[in-house]
Amino acid sequence: MKIVHQVNCNNAPKNKTVTKVTEAILKRDQDVVNEYYLNQFDSLTYPELNNIDEITIVSAMSHGKSASSLCEYYNQNKKKYIGMFFEFNTFKAQKFKEIIIIHNE
To answer: Lesser CB count within 10 Å: N end or C end of the chain?
Structure first.
């Protein structure tokens, strides 16, 4: 599965982290998720993305302790979305204490 980035977060380190973790979740990269998520990889419920060729990370943003990302892809010629909501451990932290994944199937 190819991950396309529409976001530009070169000047925002926390947004970079959001993008990196979003991609790791989509790819189910346990090492990266565990590096940034205090509750670890196995505590998340992952969307089923079988037979998906490409997903675009449309946005990744943070403000204070909150962050979110939006991803889109096509399945059977219908646009689908995955939203991720993050809560940093502290205002200056680079680790998340909460991640919520919402997927419209």
So the answer is: C
